[in-house]
Design brief:
The complex is a heterotrimer of chains A (about 240), B (about 270) and C (about 400). Chain A has about 240 residues and is of the alpha/beta class. Chain A has a single domain, classed as Alkaline Phosphatase, subunit A (3-Layer(aba) Sandwich). Chain A has ten helices and eight strands. The longest helix of chain A has 30 residues. Chain A is globular and about 60 Å long. In chain A, about 50% of the residues are buried. Chain B is of the alpha/beta class. Chain B has a six-stranded mixed β-sheet with strand order 3-2-1-4-6-5. In chain B, strands 7-8 form a two-stranded antiparallel sheet. In chain B, α6 runs antiparallel to α7. Chain B is globular. The chains are: A alpha/beta (about 240), B alpha/beta (about 270), C alpha+beta (about 400). The interface between B and C is large, with 44 and 52 residues.
């Protein structure tokens, strides 16, 4: 079984700062996403799974369309697997309705005029994200017990919470600790990949211009996000051969 | 010596050390309660004198009460007042308005400070920073070096052992001195109360609100409070258990963030 | 309530429960803002986790210090008797230098040891450093007693092994206390699970400590910090030990001049005496020469002026130091170039193994008994006599070593 822990906005500096040993594994580093004009979630994950720069294609769908995009399975690395399980990945298995509600709450936050309204929206937004995270976590743990050849769990909590709460360092620490515990519970060899990281804008979190990767077996150097299709398939073939 | 005496004593020692070790020293006065307390301590340290310049970073957006207070005290205490402004930026009308709150602080305050240090060749600056304030300040030392770009290498801080402080600066560095590091918010107000230190009356409640910290008018928001005298402020601080939240920094970057989120396709 | 906060440092192996202890201490003494506990509990339930006391310290650390926990932070709490400041010294092996800076301002130290794991390398290293810094009042907490079934035998086993170590380094513990920070046993509240223990809880033990004093009764030492000439000539300095009075006869070192104190100067006040630790201005009846680094002392009981003395030093610079290599010696307000002329014994501060005798060099994190010679005459004393004239730093580019004087040679 190959496992991929896809964590949106996992920030290299914070993984180090919070000493997340399970997320760091034996080798870890930054990914190169410099070929993209902006670190956009949908663009990056689409490029991840197809092994190609999907920026033009995805952006052509427009802001609204892009979030609902579904990449044809045969273009992705998942089609090479017999029994893959992909949880909530943007562009593939994304829970579009849920994440749309998320973005609406985000907009509501910025539209709100008074502090009290803002804080109440923030609370709803956070709660919504945490509930979803708990669900995904359970799904992921359950799926790991199955007999899939590939399990990919996509965790958006760091990104979603980070946008409005990055300045709450303790909250971020608890989230990273939780992600680290999730990583600690994976028994098979796994990869950690993030699309981009996060950097502060006052109390908010903006996307940083590099992602994170880690592996228990190989030093991948500074891979491009489009390299992972090949990396994962190579790992799979090795595992099968071994 | 009681608690406040001890704090005062230790601060006076640090101030005298800084004056002895560095020529070309200045005090950064934000006109707020902390730096005014620091200024008062400097007068104590030098027996009524303030033997070096006192610098005010003027962003031109400050409350008028701040300017009035500043000029009154500068006269009463015979201060050598240096007003630092990033005139270029002010002329360009850089302000917190057009979604520029992040750059506004950078241009008007940080740049102005950099320019002033360069112009007057100050080797050390006295600041009223406290350890119990929000943020990265807890990692500050009493004597903390900054290099030319104002980057502070907090992982490589020099050790401070037994009142022995860093006393040489490499070229290009200036040293920041923090004599109030070990004071808490309550200590400051208790000391102000005890010594009758003058403060800007924005700190006192009017119409159910007061400013817990002050800065430029466009970015400051008051908190709810009925404490309209210093005694009441001290009482309020003793009983409240909520930490000092800076009233001005919370949503400074909101407009910038909205812009970024739009460009990333979120909104 | 006693107004002077007692400064406390808590050291020990990284996993032995320091965070949990601090969290529990703050919680049980009600020293936290209420919204803080609620905040933490809410986040725990959002993530579907159980609340842990260690989270409190995590929260405080993040609140105060948005960086890696490699530096010292200050945390306040109070008992009914007095206020305490914890100088938390996380002591990750790589950042001993920063830990020394934190510990160096503490007045008492607490060592925490996991009852299951017992005394470990980090425990020893930290305790050794405390001894080096002359911290005498050590409390020892044997933690996680719940994990060993509150067993008295295990407690005694760990206690004995640590006493053996303390004897080796000639340190003394005031109390050994069995606790469980997680469960709350004997931290602030007396434990019902440990019936065989009749000593104080941790908080009670802290309250029973006397803040170090006694300096008031020692012979007068006053150090000159600077000399001002604003409206009149005032000598500014600090009383290092004893009490300075108006009219006191004094001996000035290193010059040997004698005079009397004409007045004590403090802005807006007219003091007639100044206690130990007080920064004060002074005028003298005779016109005397003095400058920064000069010492005023009791003529009947004066320290020696010397160029040579023995000391224990802790080297904390990545760059090593060789015999006869120039360093700068700083003690109180005195400063002089000097060299280490002999490394009598050099010890690894973690293993406590002897690295060698009569060596030529000291490296990072090593402790040595040395003889130092200064170019200029200095006024120093054994640390046990006058703390302020008995501890010093050695400076290369930054502070490279801290030291304590063991013997002054004429």
């Amino acid at each position: 079984m190959i496992v991929v822990l896809a964590v949106d906005a996992l920030e290299y500096d914070l993984v180090e700062k919070f000493q997340c040993r399970n997320l760091m594994q034996k080798f870890y580093g930054k990914t190169d996403i410099s070929e993209f004009s902006e670190p956009r979630t949908m663009v990056l994950w689409s490029s991840f799974m197809t092994g190609m720069n999907m920026e033009q294609e995805i952006l052509a769908l427009g802001d609204n369309g892009m979030w609902n995009a579904r990449i044809e399975p045969k273009r992705t690395l998942f089609s090479k697997f017999v029994n893959p399980a992909i949880i909530d990945l943007p562009g593939y298995d994304y829970e579009t309705l849920h994440h749309e509600k998320e973005r609406n709450l985000l907009k509501k936050f910025f539209d709100a005029q008074h502090n009290t309204e803002k804080e109440s929206v923030r609370e709803s937004y956070n709660r919504f994200a945490f509930d979803h995270h708990k669900k995904i976590k359970n799904d992921f743990i359950k799926t790991l017990r199955g007999s899939h050849d590939l399990v990919l769990g996509y965790f958006s909590i760091a990104d979603v919470i980070g946008h409005l709460n990055f300045g709450n360092a303790f909250l971020m620490r608890m989230i990273y600790r939780d992600l680290d515990e999730i990583a600690g519970g994976i028994d098979s060899p796994f990869l950690v990949v993030s699309d981009h990281g996060m950097k502060p804008i006052g109390f908010f979190g903006d996307h940083s211009s590099y992602g994170f990767w880690s592996s228990g077996e190989y030093d991948l150097g500074e891979p491009k996000i489009t390299d992972f299709k090949k990396i994962i398939l190579d790992l799979f073939h090795e595992q099968r051969g071994a | 010596m009681d608690h406040l005496d001890q704090l005062e004593n230790d601060s006076v020692y640090i101030i005298r050390e800084a004056y002895k070790e560095f020529k070309d020293i200045a005090l950064l006065w934000s006109i707020g309660k902390d730096s005014t307390t620091l200024l008062y301590l400097v007068r104590k340290a030098f027996f009524g004198q303030v033997p070096f310049p006192v610098m005010h970073l003027d962003t031109s957006y400050k409350f008028k009460e701040i300017y009035e207070f500043r000029d009154r005290i500068a006269k009463e205490w015979h201060l050598n007042l240096v007003i630092a402004k990033n005139c270029q930026a002010i002329d360009k009308k850089i302000g917190p308005g057009e979604g520029n709150k992040l750059t506004c602080c950078g241009e008007l305050k940080t740049e102005a400070l950099k320019q002033a240090i360069r112009e007057h060749k100050y080797r050390a600056i006295l600041l009223g920073i406290r350890r119990d304030e929000h943020g990265i300040r807890a990692k500050e030392r009493y004597f903390s070096p900054r290099n030319k770009q104002f980057i502070w290498d907090y992982k490589n801080q020099p050790a401070e052992l037994w009142n022995q402080y860093k006393n040489t600066e490499r070229a290009e560095e200036h040293i920041r001195v923090h004599p109030l590091l070990h004071w808490t918010e309550l200590d400051i107000w208790s000391y102000i109360q005890r010594e009758n230190i003058p403060i800007v009356d924005l700190y006192l409640a009017k119409n159910g609100k007061r400013y817990r910290s002050i800065g430029c008018e466009p970015c400051c928001s008051p908190v709810e409070s009925d404490a309209d005298t210093i005694d009441k402020i001290v009482e309020e601080l003793k009983t409240t258990k909520t930490s000092e939240r800076c009233g001005r920094a919370q949503d400074k970057e909101r407009a910038y963030m909205m812009q970024k989120l739009r460009s990333l396709g979120y909104m | 309530m006693d107004d002077n906060a007692l400064k406390l440092v808590i050291v020990g192996h990284i996993d032995h429960g320091k965070s949990t202890l601090i969290g529990r201490l703050l919680f049980d003494t009600g020293s936290l803002p209420e919204d803080k506990i609620t905040e933490i509990q809410q986040i725990c339930s959002s993530l579907g986790k159980e609340f842990e006391f260690g989270f409190i310290l995590d929260n405080l650390e993040e609140e105060r210090d948005q960086g890696i926990t490699i530096d010292t932070t200050q945390i306040f709490f109070n008992s009914h008797k007095r206020m305490y400041v914890i100088i938390d010294a996380p002591g990750h092996v790589e950042f001993v230098k920063n830990m020394i800076t934190g510990a160096s301002q503490a007045e008492t130290a607490t060592v925490i040891i996991d009852a299951e794991e017992g005394v470990k390398e980090q425990t020893k290293r930290h305790t050794y450093i405390l001894g080096m810094l002359g911290i005498q009042n050590i409390l020892v907490l044997i933690n996680k007693m719940d994990r060993v079934g509150y067993d008295q035998n295990r407690f005694n086993e760990v206690k004995k092994s640590f006493i053996d170590f303390l004897n080796d380094i000639k340190l003394n513990a005031v109390h050994f206390i069995p606790i469980s920070a997680n469960q709350g046993d004997n931290v602030v509240k007396k434990s019902e699970n440990i019936s065989w223990y009749h000593g104080p809880t941790f908080l009670e033990a802290l309250d029973s400590l006397q803040a170090p004093q006694g300096s008031q009764d020692k012979p007068l030492r006053f150090t000159v910090q600077d000399v001002y000439n604003f409206s009149k000539r005032i000598i500014a300095g600090k009383v290092l030990s004893g009490v300075l009075h108006q009219n006191d006869e004094i001996l000035i070192l290193p010059s040997g001049e004698r005079t009397r104190i004409r007045s004590l100067e403090e802005y807006l006040k007219n003091p007639t005496e100044a206690e130990t630790g007080k920064c004060i201005g002074v005028t003298t009846t005779d016109k005397v020469f003095c400058d920064r680094g000069y010492i005023f002392t009791d003529p009947q009981n004066a320290p020696l002026v010397t160029h040579t003395f023995c000391a224990n030093i802790f080297w904390m610079d990545k760059k090593s130091c060789k015999k006869d290599q120039p360093v700068i010696f700083r003690c109180s307000t005195q400063e002089s170039r000097g060299t280490i002329i002999n490394f009598h014994t050099v010890i690894d501060s973690s293993s406590l193994e002897l690295i060698g005798e009569n060596l030529n060099e000291i490296h990072n994190r090593e402790v040595a008994h040395v003889t130092i010679q200064t170019d200029n005459p200095v006024i120093v004393e054994e640390y046990s006599k006058t703390a302020e004239l008995g501890r010093f730093v050695l400076v290369t580019d930054d502070i490279s070593a801290g030291g304590i004087i063991t013997e002054v040679l004429p």
